[in-house]
Write a structure and sequence with these properties.
Elements: H1 20-29, H2 41-44, H3 60-66
Amino acid sequence: MTKFIELNRRFYKAPDKDNPEESAQDSYLLSHLGGDKSLSWPELLQHRLVVILGEPGSGKSTEFRLQ
């Protein structure tokens, strides 16, 4: 059985930017830019359609199964 550690992950709306590199950089810095506008899993699951982007191997599939 795979061990899973609860991360209490938070999610942010992707910024509207034309430059994908700038968008990726901003995604790592959002929590430090002031104001916490992040969503928890329960809040995220209230939305009908969501796209989650993340690095390969970051646990997205496992988290989806557990949610």
